[in-house]
Backbone:
């Protein structure tokens, strides 16, 4: 200690001290900084399996290095969440080139999807597959979720998540019976025309509220009777013209034919 | 009421089947006593007797107006129920009712009370849905009723005023409906009000003042809901009921029109009196309409305001549409191109909004209300008409009606362009472009096709009258020729096909008198003659008795008559055909 104290005025002391400070700050920062949600460290073998699957099924459009081609975007940085959403809902691989990938039956098993996700996540950091406690909707506040949904989502997806039209044949799909995980992943990855809602925009707990609201709508009993697709006044107008007027005219014809 | 009978020839024949009048029952006597007491004090017997003895003809299409009338009455009844609980206030409260997904959400009292009516008032949701479905049905029925009146020419003299009253009723019904749609202060109705505010602002120069005047300040403010409430439950219903009474009163004064047929002339009404037949039929029909609406309301959701959530100016939902009757105006807004908005003299002129939102409705109703007067001027027809036209017998009018209906339909479909895009897998841009073109292209096509169909149907009628019905029986003559036997129509069927007026374009009288002085009305006459040609240039005349006799006498001579040009085939003036007598009723 004395030796150290004796050299405290050594010309190199300040430089050393600065170096020490930088190292400590850097190490502390690397532990304490807000972390980019990284994919869970995947086993090297899973990444290898994913790469094989990728080359066989996805590389035609996304390129051999997932660098993107004219037919499909680069996948660097899209993260495991995006892969899990796109492949898990059957959107990828697309059946045919189109303005938008429709939801269909999923083409891969859960292990294969995990492998693909691990491979894409290994290319560059991106949003990870969310934990069940923020994406299952359990314990979420339905009323708050509904409010958030109306403010952030209803303008495209409609008030009840029945879907809506976008430009040139694109559309916001229906949100009926979608897994909470996939709703969450869509929000963090922003698939197709959808914007990204990151954690500072909508906190993970709030995302959970939105999932809870959408699941509540799925389960909601139709108190007023048939809901006509929850599409608003257009389907009501169609109903009253076809069935309302049809029934009234049928009765009028019957009464008009009836002898006095 | 007793009637005096004078013995006439026909009565003597029926003398044996005259029933002996049973002495009035005790109950009837009591009724008569009360009626007499009332009549002594009010003198009501005469007008009520007049109303009760009115005769109405039977046809299903005459009941469309009834459906509208009953739907309106149902709206009044169910609406009264709703006023017991609805709170027309924009005051903010925190919801604490029984619908969990809204618990703890801040909302207006108007919205909260509507949610309470839906979930916490016994039968409230059913009555709300009856009210809304009945409102939609009201406007559907009155629209179809208007179409019936238009296509059968029931608006002609002496009923022009009633047509105009009907047009005003229809337009006010739209406003009344929109006011009701905007009251619950849910996300959809608030969006509608926001749109309405934008419409007001699109009026050049005074737009922003108008909007501030209506909303009592900037949007949304606290004034609009109470104001709309007064308009919706007090002002407009009073005007609607008043006009409706005038409308139905004029029907009693004019007597109801009827379709042509055996025994039905321009001077009589063949049907049943109000008391007892029509009172029973119409009364029963009221309950049928009420029952059907209650059934629909019990089975099918309308305007699920709890799902829309409370209004807040920031969010908006996809598929924000007005109720169907405002759809044509919304569709016009969706079709109008954006370049109609421009800056001039330091102001912004938003004609892309104003044409569809402010001008369209008055222009459309103005044209509709003016039509009877236009047609009367063009045809020069000053006669009273109590017999309806079959739509085919006035091809130009029917064609014009279909053209107008097509334009309206294009606009109405345009309001659903987003839903058509997602449900049919189409591009919303393509749909919009196609509908823009269709608005200009489709009505003339509809006019032409309709007119041609009408003329073909008239030709077929002529053919049927002249040649009779094809029996399908092939007869072989002695010399080996084959021919199909035609059966002449019976007198009653034939009457229906030949009774209508023969139309002819007005002839242009010389524009100058013998001194070469130009007539002061020359230009007007020219326009009139041109329009008249447009109406009646293509026409198929009804078969005249001479033609029929010729056809019956000699099948070959007939062909010659048919080939002859119109001018030669029938030279009888139009008026004469109206004076022909129909066959007596079978």
Residues:
């Amino acid at each position: 200690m004395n030796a150290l104290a004796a050299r405290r005025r050594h010309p190199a002391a300040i430089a050393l001290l600065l170096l020490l400070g930088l190292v400590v700050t850097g190490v502390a920062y690397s532990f304490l900084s807000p972390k980019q949600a990284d994919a869970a460290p995947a086993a090297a073998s899973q990444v290898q399996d994913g790469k094989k699957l990728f080359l066989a099924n996805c590389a035609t459009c996304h390129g051999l290095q997932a660098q993107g081609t004219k037919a499909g975007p680069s996948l660097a940085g899209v993260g495991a969440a995006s892969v899990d959403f796109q492949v898990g809902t059957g959107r990828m691989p697309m059946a045919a080139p189109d303005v938008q990938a429709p939801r269909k039956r999923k083409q891969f098993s859960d292990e294969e999807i995990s492998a693909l996700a691990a491979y894409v996540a290994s290319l560059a950091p991106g949003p990870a597959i969310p934990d069940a406690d923020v994406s299952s909707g359990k314990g979420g506040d339905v009323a708050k979720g509904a409010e958030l949904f109306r403010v952030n989502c209803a303008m495209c997806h409609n008030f009840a998540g029945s879907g809506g039209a976008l430009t040139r044949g694109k559309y916001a799909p229906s949100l009926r019976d979608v897994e909470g995980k996939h709703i969450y992943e869509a929000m963090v990855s922003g698939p197709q025309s959808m914007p990204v809602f990151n954690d500072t925009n909508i906190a993970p707990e709030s995302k959970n509220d939105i999932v809870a609201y959408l699941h509540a709508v799925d389960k909601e009993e139709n108190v007023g009777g048939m809901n006509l697709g929850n599409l608003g006044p257009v389907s009501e107008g169609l109903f009253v013209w076809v069935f309302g007027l049809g029934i009234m005219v049928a009765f009028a014809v019957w009464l008009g034919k009836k002898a006095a | 009421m007793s009637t005096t009978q004078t013995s006439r020839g026909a009565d003597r024949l029926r003398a044996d089947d005259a029933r002996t009048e049973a002495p009035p029952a005790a109950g009837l006597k009591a009724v008569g006593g009360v009626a007499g007491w009332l009549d002594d004090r009010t003198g009501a017997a005469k007008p009520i007797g007049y109303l009760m003895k009115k005769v109405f003809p039977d046809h299903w299409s005459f009941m469309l107006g009834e459906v509208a009338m009953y739907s309106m009455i149902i709206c009044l009844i169910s609406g009264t129920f709703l006023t017991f609980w609805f709170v027309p206030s924009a005051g903010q409260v925190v919801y604490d009712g029984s619908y969990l997904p809204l618990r703890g959400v801040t909302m207006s009292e108007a919205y909260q009370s509507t949610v309470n009516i839906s979930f916490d008032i016994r039968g409230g949701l059913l009555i709300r849905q009856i009210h809304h479905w009945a409102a939609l049905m009201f406007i559907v029925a009155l629209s179809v009723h208007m179409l019936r009146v238009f296509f059968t020419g029931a608006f002609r003299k002496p009923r022009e005023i009633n047509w105009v009253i009907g047009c005003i009723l229809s337009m006010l019904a739209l406003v009344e409906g929109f006011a009701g749609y905007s009251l619950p202060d849910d996300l959809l109705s608030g969006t509608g009000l926001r749109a309405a505010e934008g419409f007001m602002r699109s009026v050049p120069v005074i737009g922003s003042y108008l909007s501030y005047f209506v909303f009592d300040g900037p949007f949304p403010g606290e004034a609009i809901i109470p104001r709309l409430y007064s308009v919706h439950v007090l002002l407009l219903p009073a005007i609607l009921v008043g006009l409706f009474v005038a409308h139905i009163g004029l029907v009693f004064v004019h007597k109801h029109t009827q379709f042509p047929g055996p025994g039905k002339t321009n001077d009589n009404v063949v049907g049943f009196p109000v008391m007892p037949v029509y009172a029973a039929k119409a009364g029963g029909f009221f309950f049928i309409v009420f029952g059907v609406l209650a059934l629909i309301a019990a089975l099918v959701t309308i305007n699920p305001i709890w799902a829309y959530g409370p209004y807040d100016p920031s969010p908006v939902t996809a598929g924000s549409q007005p109720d169907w009757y405002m759809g044509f105006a919304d569709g016009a807004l969706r079709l109008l191109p954006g370049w109609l908005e421009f800056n001039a003299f330091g102001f912004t002129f938003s004609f892309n909004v104003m044409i569809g939102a402010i001008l369209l409705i008055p222009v459309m109703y103005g044209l509709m209300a003016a039509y009877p007067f236009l047609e009367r001027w063009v045809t020069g027809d000053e006669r009273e008409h109590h017999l309806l036209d079959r739509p085919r017998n006035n091809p130009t009018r029917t064609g014009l009606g279909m053209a107008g209906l097509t334009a309206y339909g294009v606009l109405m479909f345009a309001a659903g362009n987003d839903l058509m895009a997602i449900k049919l897998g189409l591009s919303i841009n393509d749909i919009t472009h196609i509908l823009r073109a269709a608005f200009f292209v489709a009505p003339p096509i509809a006019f032409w096709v309709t007119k041609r169909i009408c003329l073909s149907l008239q030709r077929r009628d002529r053919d049927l009258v002249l040649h009779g019905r094809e029996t399908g029986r092939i007869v072989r003559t002695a010399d080996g020729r084959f021919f199909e036997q035609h059966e002449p129509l019976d007198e009653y069927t034939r009457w229906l096909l030949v009774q209508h007026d023969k139309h002819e374009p007005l002839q242009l009288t010389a524009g100058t008198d013998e001194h070469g002085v130009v007539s002061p009305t020359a230009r007007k006459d020219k326009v009139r003659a041109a329009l008249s040609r447009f109406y009646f240039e293509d026409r198929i005349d009804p078969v005249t008795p001479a033609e029929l006799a010729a056809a019956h006498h000699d099948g070959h001579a007939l062909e010659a008559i048919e080939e002859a040009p119109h001018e030669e085939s029938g030279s009888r003036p139009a008026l004469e055909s109206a004076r022909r007598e129909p066959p007596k009723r079978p």
About this structure: Chain A touches chain B through 62 residues (CB under 8 Å).
